[in-house]
Amino acid sequence: MCDHITWAVCICEEVARPEVKLLFDIYHMQIMDGDLIETICTHSDWLHHYHTGDIPGRHEIDASQEVNYPAVMRATLDTGFTGFVAHEYVPTISPELSLKQAFDLCNV
Questions:
Q1: Which CATH number fits the domain that encloses residue 23?
Q2: Burial class (CB in 10 A: 0-12, 13-18, 19+), 76
Q3: pTM summary value
Q4: Angle ∠(99,62,73) on CA atoms, nearest 5
Q5: Can you give the residue range of the structural domain that contains 43?
Q6: Nearest-angstrom CA–CA distance, 104 and 100
Q7: What is the full DSSP assignment across 35-50?
Q8: How many domains is the chain partitioned into structurally?
């Protein structure tokens, strides 16, 4: 239902409760709206949690896909974000190795 950030932020603004925040699924937001860094910077007050995932494929995040995760993570930190980033994908290699690679890529 909240497949575009502007619609989701409008709902948050209408509810106007500090407990109501958004999960920013980087995978879906790149597909639906693009312009990730600008979107994160503009709407950071409403973003409470982030999910990663490879585009295309929904597998490991790495340098072979379209999202530059180090840049996105730096922009997220620049907003003052101190919460959690979850890696939501289907590993094609050892899950432990895959998670370590995702952690290393996003640990900026």
A1: 3.20.20.150
A2: buried
A3: 0.90
A4: 80
A5: 5-106
A6: 6
A7: -HHHHHHHHGGGEEEE
A8: 1
